[in-house]
Amino acid sequence: MEIEFLGGAREGGRSAVLVNDELLLDYGLDPATPPQYPIGRVDPEGVVVSHGHLDHAGAVPALVTGDARPPIHWTPSTRELAMTLAEDTLKLHGGTPQCPFTDTHVRRVTQVSETHGYRDSFSVAGHEVTLFNAGHIPGSAHVLVDDGETRLLYTGDFHTDDQRLVAGSRARPEADVVLTESTYATVEHSDRSQLEERFAESVRTTVWEGGTVVVPVFAIGRTQELMMVCGAHDIDCYVDGLGVQVTRQLRRHPDFLRDADALARAKSNARIVSGADGQRRRIADQNTVILTTAGMLTGGPAVTYIGEIYQRPVNKIALTGYQVEGTPGRELVETGSAELDGRMLPVSAQVEQYDFSAHADRSGLRSFLAAYEDAEVLVNHGDDCPGFAERLRADGYEARAPELGERVAV
Predict the structure, then answer these.
(1) Architecture of domain 192-353
(2) CATH of the domain spanning 2-186+358-409, picked from 3.60.15.10, 3.30.10.20, 1.10.10.10, 3.40.50.10260
(3) Residues 59-70: b if buried by 16+ CB within 10 A, e if exposed
(4) SS (H, E, C) 344-397
(5) Which of 288, 304, 314, 322 has its CA 20 to 30 A from that of 29?
């Protein structure tokens, strides 16, 4: 088996892995400014997408811009989420050099889409493929690829612990090679129940003191998780942005949720914002909590809300996830200022960061890989892939971290 790394190698975004020149696993983009896409030209016979996040599925429509029409395989939830992401990318970048596809190509994706449940094997591009729950977001999958000689387990993004929205990864299928993500390979997550308590207490305190809390969230996964956290802790909240649409979509696929009824209750507890800027400004003047996209402040209603609340020290911006280098969210954490909507804002509001990550941490990665001590391990999708591979080798694993563009024989 030969594996070529077109994206995600020694970096956190734009995952794209080509197997035996025929089967493409993921085709994402890095949501930095400007967006970055996988390298090189690719013409796969088939595609499998692990989950519906931009950095794994965001560039999929670009695969059908020419004459080729490779079948695209994913779970039903991932398919719907990927289409939503594509439509949102068109709104932000359509018609510019920053977007390599059009709405015509998005429609073509639906024509070649094939959906699968977990553990239902299927054939694509001469390979047998099986998807397993990865515990990251609804519909996320580990991808097991068998070419008849080698069994490759592509982890995608995964979490070994239960979240409110999805159950953690439990499957450990036999594999000769494991291609693992490493986003949090150097980090231990806080106990989730204690994290929720800290978040809830902080939010309540700010509202009690007369402030407004803006909670930037990713549309897919994080919006719904924080809705459920707020609902469980009796915190009234507004929900705005693309996460509103995504919530409706996820509820159409209850089999990929840990507790569909709990998500329904959380939605009932939230107040949905229609999307008018005038309404947003009025909400920003209230002592309330606002869950809003985008999670890294790269756009969306979060920019409007923060533009209204950033000057008052009693207000708070509660970031809930990883902030990629080069994004306004990362800039805000590191400098206390951020360029939002063309304006550099020196933020006087309190800025807090909470690790509501949907990725496995150092312990989770190690517990997962403990099932694969005899397999070859390839490390990607992280800030320190070589370091994690080195630590694995020190513990007896056969491990390495391929470089971007590298072709590896396993």
Answers:
(1) 3-Layer(aba) Sandwich (3.40)
(2) 3.60.15.10
(3) bbbbbbeeeeeb
(4) EEECCCEEEECCCCCCCCHHHHHHHHHHHCCCEEEECCCCCHHHHHHHHHHCCC
(5) 304
Token pair for 114: 């094939």
Tens digits of residue pLDDT in 297-342: 988 999 999 999 999 999 999 999 888 778 899 999 999 999 998 9
**Confidence class for position 275, pLDDT limits 50, 70, 90:** confident
Contacts of residue 341, Cβ cutoff 8 Å, sequence gap at least 6: 303, 304, 307
Q: Check residue 278 and give its pLDDT.
A: 87
Q: How far is CA 408 from CA 19, 138, 178, 204, 401, in A?
A: 10, 31, 13, 52, 10
pLDDT digits (tens, 9 = 90+) for 76-129: 999 999 999 999 999 888 888 889 999 999 999 999 999 999 999 999 999 999
Burial of 367 (0-12, 13-18, 19+ CB in 10 A): middle
Are the C-beta atoms of 364 and 161 separated by less than 8 Å? yes
Comparing CA positions, the residue from 77, 106, 111 lying closest to residue 89 is 106
Q: Would you say 5 and 378 are in contact if contact means Cβ atoms under 8 Å apart? A: no
